[in-house]
Amino acid sequence: MGEQDDAYSLYKAATRELLNRIGQDDQLYSNALVYQHRLSENIEQSQLYGETDTHKAERNRIISELNKLALTKLGVSFNELCKQVALSEAQERTEISPTIITDPVSLVELHSEGPVWRILKSIKEARVHSRWDEILSFCDQAIRCETRHPDRSARATAQFYMADALARSDRLKEGTDEAERARKNFRVQRNHRNMILADLMLTFLKLKAREDLRYVRLDYVAIRDHCRELESKAKENPQSCKAERQFYGQIIEGIQQALEHIDQSLANEVAQSCCLNAIPILQLFDGPDRISQPADAINYFATDAFKFEGRVFLLHPLDTAHTYTPELKEGATHFALPVPEDDWPIPTSKRERDFALVRAHYTQEGPGVRWTGQEWVTGQFKRDAETGQFYFVEIPKRHIIGGEVIQKKVAETEREVTSEEYGYVIGLLKPEGSVDMSLDS
Fold first, then answer.
1. Residues ≥6 apart with Cβ < 8 Å to 197
2. Are residues 124 and 192 in the same domain?
3. Assuming Cys at both sites, which of 9, 167, 311, 376 could form a disulfide with 175, CB separation 3.0 to 4.6 Å?
């Protein structure tokens, strides 16, 4: 029944579009009016008494005549015109959908007259320029004016505007309380349209306040289901206007888009609970053999965040002059080394517990670590320009990773790097929110 009603609405919209395109001065306009009247009568009979083969046959004859007329005058058939109208309405719904969620107040209609409504129209104009302090002043005026000129509908609308202005002024709690008052008054007035808009605002404010997405989702689903019920009743009522049915349809579509975003966010939260990799933490005196049996591990997640002992660590480049984000290489072995204050002096390392993230068995020119047989030491990998072989330059303990060093080549017998004893430092793991420290001074 719902799909059939949609088809009826589309036929009516297409005949109006046909008349608009033909124009009243055209001699074919009167013919189009006759077909519009016959088609509207046919649809009304079908809605009142049910669809029959006779109704279908008659409607097909009318549409056939409309196809001929439209082709003669416009160069397109009436059926093609129906498709154009449907596409236009779909584009309109797509454009308005985000507004439904983020700015439901913009959909409030101000049709009434009177002193309070004149102030409310000034509020609507001020919203275009985001003058929130001015809007709050207007709202106060409107509410005081309503005490002298009682109008519950106008008071509820002023409260709704006030709730919006408070929320946009970072006064979420006050905005939420005012929106609740507005909703109660809309309910007393049996204003279903504005009640739904108030529900949308209250749910969006929960979203802004970062409440649990699962509960926000339930609120949106409840509003959507309520709109579906009202839309169904409107379609069954021949007296309901097209704008009312469109409004509910737009709300449903907007909520569906919001639910898709929420579901994606919830899926991401689930992904965050699935550890992609457990990176072993080695102490400075733990040899490479401890990589396979560490005492502790940092968990790496799909969101590029690392977690250890309830804290979130972010991966930073060694040199803050660079803006690139270091990456873990899939399939490679990584381990972490705590950065001690005395060996690799980073000012906040002891307090913040920074870690050097190392790609094991890997060399390229740049910072690295070497296992001496007793401890891990830091240095730089260098490539011999003549042979292409790597050698390791140890950094005295008083210098930091990536800092200015007094280069001291290892013994000749150690020039050729043995991969099992070396690793390339790809970045620093620093606690989220910690101050970025320069590593080149």
1. 104, 105, 107, 108, 160
2. yes
3. 167
- Using the predicted structure, report yes or no on whether residue 136 has a pLDDT greater than 90: yes
Please check whether residues 280 and 427 belong to one and the same domain. yes
Token representation of residue 430? 């620093």
Note the pLDDT tens digit of each residue in 146-161. Answer: 999 999 999 999 999 9
Based on the domain organization, do 238 and 306 belong to the same domain? no
Determine the structural domain holding residue 107 and report its residue range.
Answer: 100-271
pLDDT in tens, 63-98: 999 999 998 888 888 988 888 887 766 555 444 455
Helices and strands in the chain, H and E counts: 12, 10
Is the same domain home to 262 and 312?
A: no
Q: Is residue 439 part of a domain?
A: no
Q: Which residues contact 232 (CB under 8 A, 6 or more apart)?
A: 2
Interacting residues of 12 by C-beta distance below 8 A, sequence separation 6+: 39, 40, 43, 242
**What sections of 273-360 are H helices per DSSP?**
349-352
Q: What value does the mean pLDDT take over residues 31-37? A: 92
Pair 333, 362 in one domain: yes
Tokens of 415: 């020039």
Rounded to two decimals, the pTM is 0.45
- Per DSSP, 329 falls in state P
> Domains in the chain: how many in total?
3
Q: Is residue 34 a part of any domain in this protein?
A: yes
Instruction: Give the span between the Cα atoms of 394 and 167, in whole angstroms.
Output: 58
**Whole-number CA gyration radius for the chain:** 35
Q: How far apart are CA 368 and CA 279, in angstroms?
A: 17
Q: Name the band, by pLDDT with cuts 50, 70 and 90, for residue 259.
A: confident
